[in-house]
Amino acid sequence: MSANPVLGVLAGAVTLLFGSAAAAPEASAAPSETVTVDSVGRIADGFVTLSGTYRCDAGTGPVYVSSSVRQSPSADPRPIGGTRAVCDGKEHRWENTGSVSAGTLKAGPAHVEATIVELRPTGILVLPHFHAVQRQDVALVQG
């Protein structure tokens, strides 16, 4: 398995383990730490691609930009990959792609949540630390 699928599985596992950042403690973002979501996502051949920008400061553990999407308020969010973040205080682009079951998502309005999450070593445990969260309505388009 290549590194990108492994990172996506790891970021997705963190999202599923903690539900979403809405269920976890709010991100303790410094003013310089941000994550944005592009207003359009793409859906094609059973895959969804979401993107945006992020900026974060150095962490003590590996840092990822994870994302999830849902199309109705009552639906469970679907994790859509994870991107390893470079936390150097500069703005970077992120793009996550993940597969979805047939009929789960379709072109149209959706709600995306993007999170910068750090996996911080704490003794013998590794715990998530949320740097920034963005929740935004987007349009999923074919192609």
UniProtKB/TrEMBL annotation:
Extent of the signal sequence: 1-23
Keywords: Signal
Signal listed as a keyword: yes
Residue numbers spanned by region Disordered: 67-86
Chain segments annotated as transmembrane: none
Residue span, DUF6299 domain: 31-142
UniProt protein name: DUF6299 domain-containing protein
